[in-house]
Amino acid sequence: QVQLVESGGRLVQAGGSLRLSCVASGLTFSKTAMAWFRQAPGKEREYVAAISWSGGSSDYADFVKGRFTISRDNAKNTVDLQMNSLKPEDTGLYYCAGKMYYGGTMASSYNYWGQGTQVTVSS
After folding, report:
1. What are residue 64's phi and psi, to 5 degrees?
2. In terms of DSSP bridges, do strands 117-122 and 11-13 run parallel, antiparallel, or are they unpaired?
3. How confident is the model at residue 6 (pLDDT cuts 50, 70, 90)?
4. Are 24 and 4 in contact (CB under 8 A)?
5. Among 11, 71, 81, 90, which is least packed by CB within 10 angstroms?
6. Where are the beta strands (DSSP E) in 16-91?
7. Dihedral over alpha carbons 62, 123, 45, 61 (to 10 degrees)
8. Residues paired with 6 in a beta bridge
9. What tens digit of pLDDT does each residue of 51-91 get?
10. In this structure, how many other beta carbons lie within 10 angstroms of the beta carbon of residue 31?
11. CB–CB of 91/119 below 8 Å?
């Protein structure tokens, strides 16, 4: 059974940093493209960033470019999201997601999902 478990979310002040982590089990992690999505209250789930199998390719939503960095460690089955210069609008439930092939920003294209970790940025 595939499991994705996120951690690292908490309350942080605007301008601060957080590092989210997701550990995967029950799948061939090194052959799974991974991504982070987020969902704010009353809004749809939105794409944040994605990373390819090897980590050699990554992609970001425009609103996080230059502030967030996605990375992975295939030896540990983990994918991280380093978030810097946080803004109140970054508040939301952050989800780790996975699928076979890298590419695409649609949540519906991802097969595996975690339960999410809450990030709250205060102004």
Report:
1. -120, -5
2. parallel
3. very high
4. yes
5. 11
6. 18-25, 33-39, 46-51, 58-60, 68-73, 78-83
7. 10
8. 22
9. 999 999 999 999 999 999 999 999 999 999 999 999 999 99
10. 10
11. yes
